[in-house]
TrEMBL record:
Protein's recorded name: EBP like
Keyword list, A-Z: Membrane, Transmembrane, Transmembrane helix
Gene that specifies this protein: EBPL
Organism expressing this protein natively: Pongo abelii
Sequence intervals crossing the membrane: 12-32, 44-66
Length: 97
């Protein structure tokens, strides 16, 4: 495997955060789904994971977009937005100039 398969620190951090959110979503969904059928537990796991992703990843992005600029921020969530560090056509980067 060549250099094109190597992950940067930001990508590794993003994968770790998503894995932690998945583990937390599974644990929370299984706890809330005690006494329910397998399909109900699966749906609860998905809903818990989805809610955690919205709060942990998308919430700070919206906050930074409304009150600042993701492209110019040095925060953890902004560092996960790799595309904002290189030239792209997203709204945040276009606003930053």
């Amino acid at each position: 495997m060549g250099a094109e398969w190597e992950l940067g620190a930001e990508a590794g951090g993003s994968l770790l955060l998503c894995a932690a959110l998945l583990a937390a979503g599974c644990a929370l969904g299984l706890r809330l789904g005690r006494g329910r059928g397998a399909a109900d537990r699966g749906v609860l796991i998905w809903l818990c994971y989805d809610a955690l992703v919205h709060f942990a990843l998308e919430g700070p992005f919206v906050y930074l977009s409304l009150l600042g600029n993701v492209a110019n921020s040095d925060g953890l969530i902004a560092s996960l937005c790799i595309s904002c560090r290189s030239p792209c056509a997203c709204a945040s980067c276009m606003a930053a100039g």
